[in-house]
Design brief:
Blueprint: H1 2-34, H2 44-47, H3 53-63, E1 70-77, H4 84-100, E2 110-111, E3 117-124, H5 131-144, E4 152-156, H6 157-192, H7 199-223, H8 229-258, H9 264-291, H10 299-330, H11 352-362, H12 364-379, H13 400-411, E5 420-425, H14 429-437, E6 442-451, E7 454-461, H15 468-485, E8 488-490, H16 492-526, H17 530-553, H18 567-595, H19 600-627, H20 635-667
Antiparallel strand pairs: 1-3, 1-4, 2-3, 5-7, 5-8, 6-7
Length: 693
């Protein structure tokens, strides 16, 4: 009797202890989580690899007198031509900027040939590397540069673009968090049809997000991991999306076990034992896939790996410790009004997924072939993806810096408005300057600051920024100067070239690593080689189809003029790692049924019937959380959110329901090869004695 009472007390104490530990952890992590937004780095150079020419240029510029320079371009424009008063006003304002801020030289006016525009390049080392100081400088210049009465004044250039980009990223964290929470809340209420139950997984996901932000800050401080606005936003989506998926699976299994166990504690133990391996493997595939990004050359991608990983692990720990503790403490009443009573049987309802599975298995060859043809046809749409995304096309709503860039492109077709920066050894500066001026495509070249053995040379191309002509000029400068003179060629446009080159290299390295890591985890979970290969082929097909749908939508429908260079790699990592989750949920349940003695067809249909609703709910939640990215004002995040959301929906409602199920039925026991489930069960000998005649 005493032992029984001790056991009961222990069962009651464990959930309270878990809750207490989580509250203590959140109190300690709160101040660190609050600093997560402050460590985000969103300069273009923060995304680049250390070995890139443009990265070396930025670092050497930091060591020149005054440190890093903020380059702006003031653009004065009047349709029909500038007046004498306009020119006088422009000169007065630029002089006022020189008085208010420490400039690297006296700005000189560059008039356009048609007389409609006046350009003033302005540079200052006063802000240095501090993003807030840079933004304050740009905003101060914009306050001084004032037009009116038909005269437009725009402040652009690299510094203006960085400030506009920084403001966008600064608004992402709060907007993304609240929007994602709102979407998840609405979906959980619809899924559970309970006034209370939805609060439990949502509160748990919020706790996981706080812990993930604190861990992300710790990674940055301890290991120097680069945290960008993009990786921070993706981490938020991962915590809430993946965490809610794990909660849906666990709560669904817990509801089943409450009908078989009288005490919630025992029901939760059974639920964790039943679906715990699937949740663990699911989070493991995502974490492993993200960690493969550590092999990326691109600094931002390499940083996203550990940042995303801590988000997934925080969701895993929260949903397997805090969520079970809260559910056990709240008891059965949390499911009100649909309370699962002990010993009761669930209402027998016509299962949509059972009907879909039955229809699919009637003609499995036709269904499988038709699905493969459909996915292949959709993947062809990727050929219609627009070309590389220029910086001026990276916003969904045009900021002032982009408007200034377009005004300059129209007014100065004979020259670029954005400098290509050449860093040359001081002893060879004159020779490099002479060589640069004779390079094809160069309109102008002037020397700038010198120090630490280096000299800065600003080169203006005859072609517009980020055009094919400017790209040829940058390549010609690198080919003619680097090897002979020991120079580095950088600047905003060169950074975009280095970014695209690094992305191409990273795809070749990271994609095979992701596939190998996910395959190893699946083999360990499913004890098979065939089932993991089947799941990987399915998710790769989904990725191709999702990119193809993006190709049909981005340009023709949304009007995007380019495709972000990182879309292919990041969408692959997330769709493969996250898409395999649903295959794990389905195949793990199928394996359970097979171990219980079910025939292959029956095991596949039972698994689909019992997990179909959960997978559908989880897929809708995950797709909706990534779809929130499409509301942000950055084209790259819109494209990433769209492709992942579409891919998750394809995976949930087409691939898992029809293709994986029909393939499993066709393969029968071979799907578990070479595990013991691939062999037919041995017949049991009848040991009964014959009855006497």
């Amino acid at each position: 009797m005493g032992a029984a009472r001790t056991s009961v007390r222990r069962r009651r104490a464990v959930p309270w202890a878990v809750l207490g530990l989580w509250l203590a952890a959140l109190v300690l992590a709160g101040p660190l989580a609050g600093k997560f937004a402050d460590i985000q780095q969103n300069r273009s150079v923060d995304y680049l690899p250390d070995s890139a020419d443009s990265t070396q240029v930025a670092r050497i510029q930091d060591r020149l007198p005054g440190g890093e320079a903020t380059d702006l371009v003031l653009v004065y424009h009047r349709d029909g031509g500038l007046t004498a008063a306009d020119r006088s006003k422009a000169a007065e304002q630029v002089a006022g900027i020189g008085t208010a801020y420490r400039l690297t030289g006296k700005p000189r006016a560059v008039p356009s040939r048609d007389g409609s525009t006046l350009m003033y390049p302005v540079s200052s080392t006063q802000p240095g590397q501090d993003d807030k100081a840079r933004d304050a400088f740009v905003d101060g210049v914009r306050d001084i540069a004032d037009g009116g009465a038909g005269l437009s004044v725009e402040v652009g250039g690299p510094g203006g673009l960085q400030t506009d980009m920084s403001k966008v990223f600064g608004s992402i964290d709060g907007t993304l968090l609240y929007a994602t929470l709102g979407v998840v809340t609405a979906l959980l209420i619809l899924i559970y049809r309970s006034p209370f139950l939805w609060l439990v997984p949502l509160a748990t996901a919020g706790a996981a997000a706080g812990m993930a932000m604190a861990a992300g800050y710790g990674l940055h401080e301890a290991f120097g991991v680069t945290v960008t606005g993009q990786s921070g936003g993706v981490m938020t989506v991962l915590v809430l999306g993946a965490g809610t998926d794990y909660a849906l699976l666990l709560i669904s299994r817990y509801r089943e076990e409450l009908r078989r166990h009288e005490r919630p504690y025992e029901a939760m133990r059974a639920a964790l034992k039943g679906c715990g391996p699937a949740i663990l493997a699911s989070s493991g595939t995502v974490a492993a896939g993200l960690l493969c990004l550590l092999a990326a050359d691109l600094n931002s991608s390499r940083g996203m790996g550990p940042v995303g990983m801590v988000g997934v692990l925080a969701a895993l720990v929260a949903m397997t410790t805090l969520l079970p503790a809260l559910l056990v403490l709240l008891g059965r009443r949390v499911f009100w009004p649909l309370i699962p009573a002990f010993g009761s049987e669930p209402k027998v309802r016509r299962s949509l997924f059972a009907a879909m599975g039955t229809s699919a298995t009637r003609r499995p060859v036709v269904v499988l072939a038709g699905g493969a043809v459909l996915l292949s046809a959709l993947a062809l749409g990727a050929l219609n993806l627009p070309g590389g995304l220029k910086q001026e096309d990276s916003f969904t709503q045009r900021p002032e810096s982009i408007s200034a860039s377009r005004t300059l492109a129209r007014a100065y077709p004979e020259r670029g408005s954005q400098p290509i920066t050449v860093i040359a050894p001081a002893a060879k500066a004159d020779a490099v300057l002479a060589k640069a001026r004779t390079t094809a495509g160069v309109a102008q070249a002037t020397t700038g600051r010198s120090g630490s053995g280096w000299t800065e040379i600003s080169v203006y191309a005859t072609a517009a920024p980020e055009s094919k002509g400017e790209t040829r000029t940058i390549e010609a400068l690198r080919a003619g100067l680097d090897d002979t003179y020991g120079t580095y060629v950088g600047g905003p446009s060169a950074q975009q070239l280095d970014l695209a080159d690094s992305q191409a290299r990273d795809r070749e390295v990271v994609v095979p690593l992701v596939l190998a890591a996910v395959f190893v985890i699946l083999v360990g979970l499913l004890r098979s080689l065939v089932a993991p290969l089947m799941l990987l082929v399915a998710v790769v097909a989904v990725w191709g189809a999702a990119l193809g749908i993006g190709g049909l939508v981005f340009g023709p429908v949304l009007g995007f003029d380019g495709t972000d260079s990182g879309l292919g790699l990041l969408s692959f990592v997330f769709l493969v790692a996250l898409g395999v989750d649903y295959g794990i949920f389905l195949m793990h349940r199928m394996r359970e049924e097979s171990l219980a003695g079910a025939e292959p067809r029956a095991a596949a249909l039972t698994a689909l019937r019992t997990t179909g609703g959960v997978i559908a709910s989880a897929g809708v939640v995950l797709a909706a959380t990534f779809a929130v990215l499409t509301t942000l004002p950055l084209v790259g995040l819109v494209q990433l959110g769209f492709v992942i959301a579409v891919g998750v929906l394809l995976d949930t409602f087409l691939v898992r329901t029809y293709l994986v199920t029909t393939a499993s039925v066709l393969l029968e026991r071979r799907v578990w090869w070479p595990g013991r489930l691939s062999r037919a069960p041995e017949p049991v000998a009848d040991e009964r004695q014959p009855e006497p005649v």
